Amino acid sequence: MLLECRDVRKVFGDHVILDGLTLDVAEHEVVALIGASGSGKSTLLRCVNLLTEIDDGTITLDGDEITDPRADPDAVRQRIGLVFQSYNLFPHMTVLDNITLAPVRVHKKPLKDAREQALQWLDRVGLADRSDAYPDRLSGGQQQRVAIVRALVNSPRLLLLDEVTSALDPELVGEVLSMIRDLKGEGMTMVLATHEMGFAKQVADRVAFLDGGRVLEQGPPEQVLGDPVEARTRQFLARIIEAGRL
Amino acid sequence: MTYRPSTRQQERIAYRRGRAVRSVLLAAASTAVVGLGLAFGITGAPGWERVKESFFDPETAVEYLPQILEGLLLNLKLLVVCATCALTLGLLVAVLRTLRGPVFFPVRALATGYTYSFRGLPLIIVIYLFAFGIPGLRLQGTPDVLVLGAAAIIVTYGAYLAEVFRAGIESVHPSQIAAARSLGLSYRQAMRHVVLPQAVRRVAPPLLNDTVALQKDVGLISLAGPIDAIRAAQIGVAQDADFTPYIVAGVLFVLLALPLISVTDWVTLRAARRQNAGT
């Protein structure tokens, strides 16, 4: 297994967000996390990237326990890419500088090589002509694609995507989703928290339904989304259908 | 076919133009009234003749202008040195105050204590302490009074500027640090490349404003002895029993401040525009 989360617990004050959650992700696998707001999807992703410290359990990546307090979080994060709902591009840097910051500063790549690699990526996602623009000149969909490229140039073992289309206008969702579909084609291992059930169905190898801080039900998308076993999952999906999002 | 405004739109344009002319005329009239009132009020005052002689005497002004200008050169040098050092000190202290973890507790405590005490202490007292207290210790290699006075100004202003920098650092959204850390940047690198550039841009207007205040306060160094523009004027006042040299020094200080003030306004305006351009 590439990623193993065992009995992960996370508490904020009196609020139990993750309550003994267990989830495995194999190499080249794409896992979609679904569930109501507050079910712990984003928290789990932040815990895996060590931005949030867990209160119990273990998380291992490639067999190394990354939640060991002696582990170097910077080194762990260099192996994991995280893309945020609100893009979080650096507003004072151009698109190109956003992308080359980590390769140059963290991976000590020569600036010239880093720029070349960044431009190749931008070309692939159709943004080569925006390389010198500042983020506030880009549409939401363009910003999110830059954010994904920024995570990918570090060649992560695992890519975490936290509701990457939630902040986008409906007509811009497609361009981001098609990029993620391409990444799956290349064998990138991904864990994505999403509200896009249709997309989860298309791209995910497995869908995990989070409820009450645990994985209540998981399996192939057709089964979990089409014929769920658990009553809670059925309720959740019924609400989604009611809102016209499936 | 070319576009021609509709009759309704033409009416609107004509109306707005009329209003604009009217407000310009009103502004001119009210400015004239206030100006004349001030001029008559002051020159018509019973003591005006005496005040004119002892504060606005052209001969005295010309006589002391060279000395005061020479003093002003010292002010200018002090301003450059003090502003550079105080900004550096302020930035350093602000960053030290943001450090987390038990190892840094003493550093944090010292930095906090420093900003609390030196923002409270009047600059005059700090100058006396540094310029007369430190030489009083009779240590070997005690620097010149000028250097000690400058140090007092730097230490006092550094405390203010540190708080401005800290406000800027705290105004950068935590998601920016999260994004930087998620890319594998260390805390230092995230601070250096992501947080500080945004923070400094945001607080540039208040920083420059404090620099304008600093350019007046460097004159307080005259308390410790060095002859700056204010001291030079004071000597003139004492010799002729005429306050005109003070007015000369005051006008020169305003002239010195003008470029800095206009830069401040420009930077503030630009920052406001950037802010409105969207996130």
Automatic annotation (TrEMBL), chain A:
Membrane topology: Peripheral membrane protein
UniProt key word Membrane: yes
The keyword Transport appears for this protein: yes
SMART domains linked to this entry: AAA
Domain of life: Bacteria
Entry similarity comment: Belongs to the ABC transporter superfamily.
This protein's name: Amino acid ABC transporter ATP-binding protein (PAAT family)
Higher taxonomy: Bacteria, Bacillati, Actinomycetota, Actinomycetes, Micromonosporales
TrEMBL record, chain B:
Keywords: Amino-acid transport, Cell membrane, Membrane, Transmembrane, Transmembrane helix, Transport
Listed GO biological process terms: amino acid transport
Coiled coil: none
MF GO annotations: transmembrane transporter activity
The protein's name: Amino acid ABC transporter membrane protein (PAAT family)
Domain ABC transmembrane type-1, residue spans: 72-264
Organism this protein belongs to: Actinoplanes italicus
Keyword presence, Protein biosynthesis: no
One cellular component (GO) term of this entry: ATP-binding cassette (ABC) transporter complex
Membrane-traversing stretches: 20-42, 78-99, 120-139, 145-165, 243-261
Membrane topology annotation: Multi-pass membrane protein
Similarity annotation: Belongs to the binding-protein-dependent transport system permease family. HisMQ subfamily.
UniProt subcellular location: Cell membrane
Major localization class: membrane
